[in-house]
Write a structure and sequence with these properties.
The chain is α+β, with helices and mostly antiparallel strands. It has three domains: 33 residues, no CATH class; 59 residues, ADC-like domains (N-terminal domain of TfIIb, Single Sheet), CATH 2.20.25.90; 80 residues, no CATH class. Strand 1 and strand 2 form a beta hairpin. The protein is elongated.
Amino acid sequence: MSARELLQSWPLIKQLTGSDPMGRGSAAKSAHTSETKARTTAATRTVQSVCPYCAVGCGQKIFVKNEEIIQIEGDPDSPISRGRLCPKGSATKQLVTAPSRQTSVLYRKPYGSEWETIDLEQATEMVARRIVETRERTWEHTDSHNRPLNRTMGIAGLGGATLDNEENYLIKKLFMAIGAVQIENQARI
């Protein structure tokens, strides 16, 4: 690159000699910036979703390339959030793609000191068996005045902030169906 070309590439020179005297457009743009493309342009498809963090239900656009998430942004078509996301919602990609994300079921035996990996079917069977046993053992048909209760105080539901409204609805219905009365879906612990 000659000295003249180098001088012409400086933003101040471009601003003073070009068509952008305020330095807000082409004068402030470098060649590298001109070649830069948004990550979302590489996406092969876009999926609409809802932010998983709270009950507001902000809309999200998930950009996918080769079946991998490359970007998650607010959905401007969402009547709830109109394209905006809070800091937690903006970090949703980290929630679903972080290398430290737990993707297998871990189980620690009673009085054990080590975690072992078990398959999902085995874990589901263990949870279901324990729910049925606890419900049978702690079921209350009536109170001391013979009024009907039909409940169990031996099971409680504690949800999380990363569940959406539909998941919380189904969890609430499930726990009510098995007779639990202590149910919290948006616990902030």
